[in-house]
Structures are given as C-alpha cells and as structure tokens.
Amino acid sequence: MIVDDSSVARAVISRMVGADPEFEVVAMAGSAIEALDALKTVSVDIVLLDVEMPGGSGLEALPHIIRAGAGARVLVVSSMAEDGAEVAVRALAQGAADTLPKPGANAFSGRFSEVLADKIRRIGRANREPAAAEAVETRPLKLRDMPAAPLRCVALGASTGGLHALLEFLRALPEPIGAPILVTQHLPATFMPYFARQLEAASGRIARVAEDGETPQADFILVAPGDSHLCVQRAGALVQVKLEKGKAPSGCLPSVDPMLASVADAYGESGLGIMMSGMGRDGLIGSRRMVERGGAMLAQDQQTASIWGMPRAVAEAGLASAVLPPQQLARRVAMRAEAASWR
Questions:
Q1: Which among 230, 261, 283, 340 has the fewest CB atoms less than 10 Å away?
Q2: Confidence (pTM)
Q3: Is the peptide bond between 176 and the residue preceding it cis, with omega within 30 degrees of 0?
Q4: Which positions carry 4-aspartylphosphate (predicted)?
C-alpha cells in the first residue's frame, strides 16, 4: 500500500514498485484516514507511508496503521527522513521498520527506485502464516544458565525494527541496575544525537553518543556513533571506551560484533549482551565470544521482533539464556542485577 497525499508521488512510486515482478501494489491512499479505512478490507505486507500529509500526520497515525495492518510493516518514505533526521528516529521509535528519504517531486530517479526495491525486499512479508511460524516456534531452543556473577555491563544490539524494541526494554528497566548500558543500533551518524535523546526520554537515564576514551558509568547509556564501532578496553581496574572504524565481519558500521566481543574481553562473566530485532547475523560472532568468556546473552522473541534475524541467529546457535519480549528481558536483567547485589 502506498500512502501519500501527492497524486504524482503515488503514481511514480506505484510505477516503480509495480515494475518489479516481486511486488504488487494492492492499494493507494491519499491520507492516513484513507489508509486505515483501506486496511479494514485489504491485506498488505508493507505500507509505504509519507509523514507530511494534510488531515493528520503520518507519524501520529503510524501506530494505528501498524495495528490495523495486522502484521504489515511500515516503510516511511519522506523527504523529512533526511532533512529532519529527528522525524526518522521518531518514526522508528513508533514501530516503523525502516525509513527512506524521498527526493523532490521532479527528482525521482533510477537510483531511488533501486534503493526502494532493496528496502522492500529487506523488510519482507508480513508474518501471517501460522504454519511457518509454528515450524520455527516449536523448534526446541537450547537455553544456557545465567551466570551468577555481579552485573558490570549491559550491551544491546539492534537493527531494523530494533529502536521500538530498545525503547520498550528501557522503559521497563528499573533504575538503578548498577551497570553501564552500551547500545549499537544500525543508524546513520546524523541520526545518533536524536536517537540518544529518544533513549534518554524512554529510560530516565542520561544517554549520549559515546566518545573515545571516556569511562562507562553505571546506569548511563552510551550509543555507538554512526561511523564507529563502540568498543571497550580494560587497563587494570579501568575500563574505557575505544571507538574503532575497522571492517567488521558483518560489513555493518557500527557493528554489534565488535561491541559484544570487547565487552566479553573487558568484563568476562560480568558482561551481558542482548540482541534485539534486526536483519542478518550481525552480533552472532560477538555473542559467541561473550559466552566463551563466561558472560551471557539474551534475545528478543520472534513474536515481538519486527525482523527475527539477529536474535534468531543467537537463539538458534544455543547462545541465549532467555528468548523473551523486550519488557520481560528487562525484568530478567533487573533480577540478575538484584540477585548479584545481595552476594
């Protein structure tokens, strides 16, 4: 479904999408209200949503469209996704699977068409096939015991759909837990200050983009810059942030793998990693290192993850101590922190 108040944009995007044999445009709407009405009778996998529309902001309607879509994923296509990075982060925070800057009305090009098609493929179909879902859900997952060591660092990794999960986790996480919180989310560098503000508002904790050489502090949130991996290194009793730009196995920058691997080396059994929604397998290598060093991994469950790729890789590799929704993962972290504090 294409939702845009511009008839020109709807027509051009429709031609672009329809030109690919993998896709079919099943509905178009000129406003969020029209989209909600259409979703009562039309089943869609992906909604391409503009956020600047008369009669109701696409951002305000986004959560309602997600609910009405019954599993459909939303790709925000808007000029504000580039010029106003804060809008894009707000969209991701409210559950959008991804965002894409829309060129001017007279600047639609072949390059935009290629990027749009790639985004749609990556987001994939809505999860409405019970048989396929059951095949994954009934596959036994081997869970590991949670270490009993004091909790010294929590490292969260996420990609597509992960921002919404991160906010749910942080809202449910009680304060204090007595450990710094590191976050690697696949986002461009220009998004990161806005992203940190979203995390701060949701958690009630101080959140900022990490700086090289600083010392992680208990209950502070440090966010990986968009152009560097967020790592830590230990020198005696001191742990400091080390920002790295080297190529990661996943090809992502920032990547979850270097963060988790460095936390494993610096904190050992006192490190805890959490894998949230995201496509691919970034973080799997770092998760193995975390477990090898005596630490623990948790993973978001399939039912709540927009894209159960990154958490699935960790869960099916037998590296997770729990596979749960974000709020329950937060409770598990709180229990670990509280139990350790009594020892």
A1: 340
A2: 0.81
A3: yes
A4: 50
